[in-house]
Automatic annotation (TrEMBL):
<dbReference type="GO" id="GO:0005506">
    <property type="term" value="F:iron ion binding"/>
</dbReference>
<dbReference type="InterPro" id="IPR017972">
    <property type="entry name" value="Cyt_P450_CS"/>
</dbReference>
<keyword id="KW-0560">Oxidoreductase</keyword>
<dbReference type="Pfam" id="PF00067">
    <property type="entry name" value="p450"/>
</dbReference>
<keyword id="KW-0503">Monooxygenase</keyword>
<dbReference type="GO" id="GO:0005789">
    <property type="term" value="C:endoplasmic reticulum membrane"/>
</dbReference>
<dbReference type="InterPro" id="IPR050476">
    <property type="entry name" value="Insect_CytP450_Detox"/>
</dbReference>
<dbReference type="InterPro" id="IPR036396">
    <property type="entry name" value="Cyt_P450_sf"/>
</dbReference>
<dbReference type="GO" id="GO:0004497">
    <property type="term" value="F:monooxygenase activity"/>
</dbReference>
<keyword id="KW-0256">Endoplasmic reticulum</keyword>
<keyword id="KW-0492">Microsome</keyword>
<keyword id="KW-0349">Heme</keyword>
<keyword id="KW-0472">Membrane</keyword>
<keyword id="KW-0479">Metal-binding</keyword>
<feature type="transmembrane region" description="Helical">
    <location>
        <begin position="12"/>
        <end position="29"/>
    </location>
</feature>
<dbReference type="GO" id="GO:0020037">
    <property type="term" value="F:heme binding"/>
</dbReference>
<dbReference type="InterPro" id="IPR001128">
    <property type="entry name" value="Cyt_P450"/>
</dbReference>
Length: 277
């Protein structure tokens, strides 16, 4: 899996990197050119692994409570989302799952669909999580006061749970969540987001010299995550690493949609909780 991840994320080839940029700006060109951006070896590997996994689950009756199982259950139309599962996450940096799927009919998921979801779940968190850990380590090394405070919290937590760290114990580590949240502000996994406008939207002028602007239906809208995270209007002294921005007292002062490490809305990062863990 590690080798496949490295192969997928390898953008050292100049042509492939150039094509990625072109297809990002003009998605229709990829369909016309029929160029596969995923190496054939990687595609075959994931198709084989998922096919074997599905066979073992459906034919042999083997059950594991994981993402593949959820997708297979959804295909059978028996998956029920509990309201407790949709509760707001305790981590500030996580995103709340969308409730927009409620009341929708049984999903027609093919083996290819399940393979695609498994692939994006794996690849989407391959390089981003390692980068986040690297940046957090750097910030802790250059901010010893933050490091000492976090170490003290970790020691206290380990002492309280007899050295056996659990998910629930991690949930109680508020300063750790503050440090992670600030790391994702300074070093977001994605520097921009893109969305497709579904209806004409009029942007009213905020200043005297500005004019009314209409975002037309079908237009691609780019949200500059890095630019917003470093805007002093939302985060004073943005270049300073300051976990206190996300304390219980301060995090409620953060303007909605100014903090977007995992996006927001129905198309947010499906694996934000998994990535944080």
């Amino acid at each position: 899996f590690y080798s496949m991840g490295i192969m997928t994320e390898d953008n050292s080839g100049g042509l492939r990197f150039l094509l990625m940029g072109i297809f990002a700006l003009f998605p229709f060109l990829q369909k016309l050119s029929k160029v596969d951006m995923i190496p054939g070896t990687v595609s075959k590997f994931f198709r084989r692994v998922v096919k074997e996994t599905i066979y073992k689950r459906e034919v042999e009756g083997f059950v594991r409570h994981d993402m593949i199982n959820l997708l297979l259950e959804a295909r059978k139309g028996v998956t029920a989302v509990e309201e407790s599962d949709l509760a707001a996450p305790s981590e500030f940096s996580a995103v709340e799952e969308s409730k927009s799927h409620h009341g929708k009919p049984k999903l027609e998921l093919t083996d290819e669909d399940i393979t695609a979801q498994a692939f994006i779940f794996f690849v989407g968190g391959f390089e981003t999580t390692s980068s986040a850990i690297t940046f957090m380590s750097y910030e802790l090394a250059t901010n010893p006061d933050v490091q000492k405070k976090l170490q003290a919290e970790a020691d206290d937590t380990l002492s309280e749970c007899d050295g056996k760290l659990s998910y629930h114990a991690l949930q109680r580590m508020k300063y750790l969540d503050m440090v992670v949240s600030e790391t994702l502000r300074k070093w977001p996994p994605g520097y921009q987001l893109d969305r497709r406008c579904v209806k004409d939207y009029v942007v009213e002028p905020e200043k005297v010299h500005e004019k009314t602007f209409t975002i037309e239906r079908g237009s691609k809208v780019i949200i500059p995550v890095m630019g917003i995270h470093y805007d002093p209007q939302y985060f004073p002294i943005p270049n300073r690493f300051d976990p206190e921005r996300f304390s219980d007292e301060n995090k409620m002062k953060i303007q909605p949609y100014s903090y977007l490490p995992f996006g927001s809305g129905p198309r947010n990062c499906i694996a934000s909780r998994f990535a944080l863990l």
